[in-house]
Amino acid sequence: MTDLTEKFRSLPVVSDLIALRETLWFNDKVTTADRGLLHTGLTRKDAEDAEARLRRFAPLLAAAFPETAGSGGIIESDMVPVPAMQARLEQSAPLPGRLWLKKDSHLPISGSIKARGGIYEVLAHAEKLALEAGLITPDDDYSLLLSPAHRQFFSQHKIAAGSTGNLGLSIGIMSARLGFHVTVHMSADARQWKKEMLRGHGADVIEYEQDYGVAVEQGRKAAECDPACFFIDDENSRTLFLGYAVAGLRLPAQLEEKGITVDASHPLFVYLPCGVGGGPGGVAFGLKLAFGDNVHCFFAEPTHSPCMLLGMSTGLHDRIAVQDIGIDNQTAADGLAVGRASGFVGRAMEQLIDGCYTISDRTLYDLLVMLDETEGIQLEPSALAGMSGPRRVAASPDYLAQRGITPQQLQQATHLVWATGGGMVPAAEMQHYLAKARR
Predict the structure, then answer these.
(1) Are 306 and 358 in contact (CB under 8 A)?
(2) What is the pLDDT of residues 365-388, one digit of tens each?
(3) Which of 63, 114, 146, 242 could share a disulfide with 167, CB 3.0–4.6 Å?
(4) Cβ atoms within 10 A of the Cβ of 395, count?
(5) pLDDT score recorded for residue 3
(6) How far is CA 381 from the centre of its chain?
(7) CA distance readout (Å), 367 to 40, 250, 389, 396
(8) pLDDT below 70 — which residues of the chain?
(9) For residue 240, what pLDDT is reported?
(10) Listed residue (145, 143, 200, 147) closest to 169, CA to CA
(11) Phi-psi region for residue 259, left (φ > 0), alpha (ψ -120 to 50) or beta?
């Protein structure tokens, strides 16, 4: 690893990462959507099967979580224009097109994008167990699984996960509600209120002084020693990935409701905060299925945790960590504090995403205050990572020309910032974020 690391340290993009500069990297391996999708090893049918499974579980979710009853048990977020925020951003640089916010930050049950992947994988595992035991058929009303008898059945099984916070919340809350014995291994940077909320729902929480990678590794080892335990692996799970992909399949209908056109003349740019990569990778996969070459996806990471940019730009993926080049993986964006990217996601997406960029904690806090002041929307710091992307992409004429995007097309573009968390942050904690930002 030392020889490999030394080989890449002198690359300009890696030098910028080492210097903790806000860095924008464009992916020269990106190709057409059709070719890139073949490279993933997954298909549209895989994503459609995930959507169908979520619909089968919709009656259960509506019964188990009253906050989903209004949507019939479908977990989905609103998409809102943020014109005042756009005007504030344009005070420092032009931003052609129109800026929108995808509020996965306010998804029901766990208040983050992880409600898509984490909850989906728990449901997929529960369905598998119940079908194998003959407790249900695919044609049944899945709310039957909430009965005391079924909860007793699930209590004989265990689920475990490693998390910086939000994934653990989604997995812990859903698993406990079904009756599973669930353990979440959490890194030192996870927020205390998330740990307390998990315990309040009946999950066991094991805390580590080290970062996300150690929490995941310890969780994986513990599960390997227990045949009754199913480990949900954020680094390598295709099931999680497909749960996130459903968001991309659903977006065309939502855009149509908003009167938004996406085609060659009206491109869609999407900016996705990135930790280990499963959430943004899955969403981007679904978006490419839905919009093909008319959507352009960017991953956003903290300057102190640029694992996906490092892995993709060097081609080493999970064979290199930010610590290998002297970066500490310490950031206020706790949900993105990951030192080593998912090798599965990095390789699957290396022909589909247009690029990655990094953002400093200072900029995250500035944007947090701006969004609160202009739109009255409050997010946790990591969820603001996507917000600096539109200006930076709009200010990159060489990239736009290379992708064949004219100034007129950029004027007609939609910029969609994916807000990934914040809906369940306690009021006192949010006020702490705002006060810190203003200091």
Answers:
(1) yes
(2) 999 999 999 999 999 999 999 999
(3) 114
(4) 13
(5) 66
(6) 14
(7) 34, 28, 12, 21
(8) 1-4
(9) 96
(10) 200
(11) left
Q: Beta strands 295-302 and 355-359: pairing type?
A: parallel
d(CA 75, CA 89) in angstroms, rounded, equals 31
Q: At what angle do helices 44-64 and 238-257 cross, to 10 degrees?
A: 80
Distance from chain centroid for Cα 311: 17
Written as six digits, the tokens of 266 are: 């009206």
Among residues 300, 306, 301, 385, which one has the least CA distance to residue 340? 306
What distance in Å separates the CA atoms of residue 277 and residue 178, rounded to the nearest whole number? 27
Picking from 112, 106, 114, 122, the residue whose alpha carbon sits closest to that of residue 54 is: 122
**H helices of 65-147, where?**
83-89, 114-132
Token pair 């890696």 is at which residue?
A: 14
Beta strands in 38-133 (DSSP E): 79-81, 98-103
Residue with tokens 């335990």: 229
What are the angstrom distances between the C-alpha of 239 and each of 19, 26, 277, 352?
36, 28, 13, 19
